[in-house]
């Protein structure tokens, strides 16, 4: 099967995720951030997810543990990342979250038996170098880890585990794998909102349809990403999703007050090159055909 479609969908979904800071900033301006936002958006999506998951229960039941892992890891990664971005420094959070390719490549090698080729490792290192250049790593970033830093690391690890579980649960329908993290995020937010004393603000008609529009965008992008990681090796998928970082940093620089510098362009180019290298099909082993003995 050609990997062109899953790669294209995975990159497209990752870019949409990278532009997610735009609605997040809008909602923050009206006092809707962190767990309350997760509860509203993913609670709305859960109204769609739960009936469909129940309808497909006979298909995913044999791999129910895999689906549970997708819900917990994917939902936990979303909740942790949204909270980290709300309370921490965005640059540090994104940098620590994008250690995810490391976990993805190593996890695919350790747990799924994927080949750790020199080309794949080189693409990973190139992607990390591109991340460093894009974010403009400096001495100020090397500080003791704070609570938001740990949340970003947990989010990156959870996202990588979600990708590994998605690939391993190969008999679970795509719809179930797409919708399970929504339910996981909503349940985690429902537990954490009372614990943290954070609750959603009063909803207006305008805010309600904006939340619904964001939920629809998240649904479509998640479906694209889940299709991609279901049909690609974990190591390759982990490098391709770095497009989210490129989209986030460059779009914020383009639309914000910060000008795009040379290091951002070089970093974006390196990440793109790494993604192309990672998506290059592995060379099949040569088969030696021996002449029959006479």
UniProtKB/TrEMBL annotation:
Span of domain EamA: 9-135
SUPFAM superfamilies: Multidrug resistance efflux transporter EmrE
Segments crossing the lipid bilayer: 28-54, 66-87, 93-112, 119-138, 150-166, 178-197, 203-225, 237-257
Annotated Pfam families: EamA
GO terms under cellular component: membrane
Keywords, in A-Z order: Membrane, Transmembrane, Transmembrane helix
Domain of life per record: Bacteria
PANTHER family per the UniProt record, alphabetical: ACYL-MALONYL CONDENSING ENZYME-RELATED, SOLUTE CARRIER FAMILY 35 MEMBER G2-RELATED
Protein's name according to its UniProt entry: EamA family transporter
